[in-house]
Amino acid sequence: MEIAFEKSGGLVPAIIQDDASSEVLMLGFMNAESFALTQRTGEVVFFSRSRNKIWKKGESSGHVLQVRDIRIDCDADALLIRVHPLGSGVCHEGYRSCFYRELNADGTAAVIADRTLAPESVYATENPAAKKESR
Amino acid sequence: MEIAFEKSGGLVPAIIQDDASSEVLMLGFMNAESFALTQRTGEVVFFSRSRNKIWKKGESSGHVLQVRDIRIDCDADALLIRVHPLGSGVCHEGYRSCFYRELNADGTAAVIADRTLAPESVYATENPAAKKESR
Q: Which ipTM did the prediction report?
């Protein structure tokens, strides 16, 4: 089973779904190395497009994503990773899921979730630039 | 609310989740035009990377995805679209979800779902090349 990394310039999207609640928590990208690390360690490792490097989810926050199973789609260019998330939320904005806003027909967005953690308590030791991803 | 299309060369990934069962059905990509069509018509329209054109899901199969709501992630470069899917499966391989295989630690894949439709009954009038996507 070959994952089609080359089809998208070396990266495939990985959907992260809570194995218990089925909530979609976030989407990240993986290259071959981060995928291999994810599979070997049982904890999700992405490739950060903005920082152009391997990025273990939870490396600063402790909010590690423990892998339950990994699924692959029909044309082998997308992954669905079901996880047990450590901590009360994956999003650096303080929500359980990064998908905490709904888009309205008029182009505005409405927050539809409650904050489950205080972002500053998790990322306090980092510089502002580092806060741009849900580390 | 601006969607960050330019960040990924004009395309953002759109996760399609069954609104009733919470099952993740597929992942496609959208450009600004296909997103606008999706929002305006209430039915999912992707941009096909392989065919380099707008692609309405269900245009040949009738398996249209009716939009329930559209969510956007914290950095505005991924969409989560919750849908009511028409028909018994979204995948051209005959499954309810395109994520019908689980990856094992040894690199092999195991089918973990039952077929819910016969692919040839849906795509019989198309040529084989057209079968490569879940149209």
A: 0.91
Which uninterrupted H or E stretch holds B119? helix B119-123
pLDDT of A129: 44
Phi, psi of B18 (to 5 degrees): -65, 120
> CA B90 to CA B58: how far, in whole Å?
8
Would you call B134 helix, strand, or coil by DSSP?
Answer: coil
Contact A75, B133 (CB under 8 A): yes
pLDDT tens sequence across B123-135: 654 444 444 555 5
* Chain B: closest CA distance from residue A41 (Å): 11
Helix (H/G/I), strand (E/B), else coil: B88: coil
Task: Say if the Cβ atoms of B1 and A108 lie within 8 Å.
Answer: yes
CA distance A84 to A17: 9
B93 chain-A contacts, CB cut-off 8 A: 74
| Helix, coil or strand: residue B129 | helix
- The residues, any chain, with a CB within 8 Å of residue B52's CB and separated by 6 or more, are none
Q: Smallest CA–CA separation between A133 and chain B, in Å?
A: 8
**Cβ–Cβ < 8 Å for B81, B70:** yes
d(CA A4, CA A11): 9
